Amino acid sequence: MNPVILSILNLFSGQTDLIELPKLGIKIISDKLIELQTSIGTLSDGNGPIAEAHVILLAAGVVIFLGVAGEAFFKKTGIPDVAFLMILGVIIGPVFGLIQPEAVIQVVPYFAALALIIIMFDGGLNLDIKHVIKTAHFSVTLAVLGFILSVVMITLAAHFALGWLWLESILLGSIVGGSSSAIVFGLVRNVKISEETKSMLSFESALTDILATIIAFILFEAVLAGHFDLQTLQETIGRAIVVGLVLGFGVGIPWMYVSTKLGNAQHAYMLTLGVLFVLFFLANSFGESGALTALVFGLMIGNKVHLAKILRFKLPRIELDDPTHNQLIFLVRSFFFVFVGLMASFGQIEYLIFGVLITVAVYYGRILVGKITLTKRFSLLDRAVTNSMIPRGLAAAVLATYPITMGLPNAEAYPQLIFFIILTSVIITTAGLAKSKKIPPPESVEGGFVKPDDDVTEDVIEVEKISDISLDDAVEGGFIRDKDEKSEKELN
């Protein structure tokens, strides 16, 4: 008979003390964990399955439950669910050893490719092309300056603190040089900042993901060859941009028209997904990682209502918030960040110290870049959120797996270092956003937590006096705008 049932029967008959039940429960749980661990056939020699089927399904169920709980917790507190998912990966991987990192590494490159294009496609779908154009110069400046500064700081630290060669140090800096679009896209939807700032941060994170991917793949080959060619870098970046734009626009615009003809057809989304996968294959065939192609393709599909007016064709009524797409994004993000936790290792304390300290340095570098880039048209809230937005995530985790599969020097160190950098950056971002929420919101400003600068507020008041424009019209989400050219002339 089951020992728990037997003990309960003995309890009622007076043969078992009530105090003994918790002890018995702990013993049973411990025994089951040991039994579960020994029953798993991991890939220690690279030839067996990752784990038994029922264990994989159990892990998948736990990931889904925690993903849903983490998402709900994020909406309540602003703490990204990424941290919970990564910690879950640590628990079922390094802590209990249910799934070994060697097994995960063989699966990650395939799942990473899927995650990258799906997340970039989702980013394009959720970008408003009008806001992107309006804030493109801010996004590009933030992306380029922030990426370069991060790469320089991480390169110097890796070379002098870890004793790595220059090429290896630059590669590490490139992998974690930019913020993660997978995290930023989710964060900005739940922060009450201006729409312009949301678009700016989303587009910036997408650009840095693309920069990191392109430059990292060039450096992979450079590390293998033992030398770096600047001309190759220029040619590769140029080719990747051309291929990404040509494929994204060239297929996105025709498919935008085709998808309107499909209307609400039962498998319309699946067909779009099929086109996306074919685009990824074509982009890779022509030397582009697929990230930029997926972003541009998503931008076309997500803005088809606006673009249809320009191209002059009618759109049927289509359900824009596709539940299938939302569920797919949820699954991809949840499982991939658990994979990141599975690859973590706590054997070398210097990697933990390095990851934490370099992320703190990147945060202060971000503040410097924000002061250089953002003008006084941005509210204090917009600036505070922008300065805090340094989460590293999907692109870094994806690229961290390639040194192992390619046999590069210090290959095992990349996933370990990047795990601590990702986790620390998420914590810093969360703390920064929480700090922003504590500042009182300005009156009559929709979508902002903090008052604009005094000089900007005075300008708004002056606009009210001169042109009788209400503050709600003059200020949208904390991003100060003049109502029209007439008001601007009167201001001057």
Automatic annotation (TrEMBL):
Report the main location listed first in the record. membrane
What residue stretches are annotated with the Cation/H+ exchanger transmembrane domain?
64-429
Membrane topology recorded in Swiss-Prot or TrEMBL: Multi-pass membrane protein
Tell where it localizes. Answer: Cell membrane
Q: In its UniProt record, which GO terms are filed under biological process?
A: proton transmembrane transport
Lineage, top-rank taxon, reads: Archaea
MF terms in GO: antiporter activity
**GO CC, any one term:** plasma membrane
- Pfam families on file: Na_H_Exchanger
Q: Which UniProt keywords apply?
A: Antiport, Cell membrane, Ion transport, Membrane, Transmembrane, Transmembrane helix, Transport
Q: Do you know which InterPro entries this protein is assigned to? A: Cation/H_exchanger_TM (IPR006153), Na+/solute_symporter_sf (IPR038770)
Ranges that cross the membrane: 53-70, 82-101, 107-127, 139-164, 170-188, 200-220, 240-258, 265-283, 289-307, 328-346, 352-369, 389-408, 414-434
What's the name of the protein? Peptidase
